What does this fold into?
Amino acid sequence: MKFQEAVRTGLRAARMNLWPGLFLQSIMLCFIAAYLLHDGTQAFLAKVGGIKQEVGYTFAFVSYMLSGALLPELMRIVFFQGWKPRWENLRNFALTGPFIGLMGVTVDFFYRCQNAWFGVGNDWPIVVTKVLVDQLLYSPFLANLLCTGFFTLRDGRFSREVFASIFTLGFITEKVLPVQIAGWAFWFPAVACIYFMPPQLQIPFAVLVQAFWVLMVTTITERQVRTACR
It folds into this structure.
């Protein structure tokens, strides 16, 4: 029953994210079209790719920290806190920033491994293989587990009880599985777009996708919290 409820929860979240997700995916497709057809976009992204190659994993760490940790706190301050920063915002960023940065490094390393394993082309067999490995192995068994576990610990003030709870079956069925099912609806097409890009632009494009994802999820989450408090 817990498994079925987890699936239902994930599907409800996926339906809620459907139209915003489709909108973001449309933006990504427009961005790819601009990259393919517009010389100015190609030149700009070539410079970004050059910077990424020059600084290596540092690019992934800093860009993920800014898009995945700083951006949501800025959104909360501007749109949901009336431009009034709170100590909680600084605490959240101080705790979340390094973790998200390290996850960016992990993603960068994983993309490099995918390119070494399956090649760097963007023909459909290569892209589909990378997407399946990403979404059926890396995402559920590493990325989602780590992220869901971290945010559960953070929101629980890293208490001993919360730490113990993440090693239970209930944590998988109540936390991890619903998040994974909801995320698949967005990230399957999103990572296909990422793997379509050349290797030096995959992390920059992933950062852009994550920024849009953070904007959407933060907005939906904050609205849910506000509705629940009324």
About this structure: The longest helix spans residues 87-118. The chain has one domain: 2-229. Residues 2-229 form one domain.
